[in-house]
Amino acid sequence: DIGATGVFDAYLDGETLTFSLKDGNFVDDQTGATWNILGEGLEGEMAGKSLTPIVHGNHFWFAWGAFYPETLIYRGVS
Fold this sequence. Notes:
mainly beta, 4-stranded antiparallel beta sheet, 8 strands, 27% strand
């Protein structure tokens, strides 16, 4: 599979958010709002808000895994 990544600053409206995966969705632990991979609040108190993107690189797993074999992989709900 070739996936995509989104990297964002979790600081929004004076608060640093933390996130969990619930039922295949990203949910912030502070408000319970649902977010997408584009950093957009979809449902809940944060609906319509956006996190600030951080410039990052998308790397192929075979290259990353060779250099960083201790990497942990988190998978969404299938």
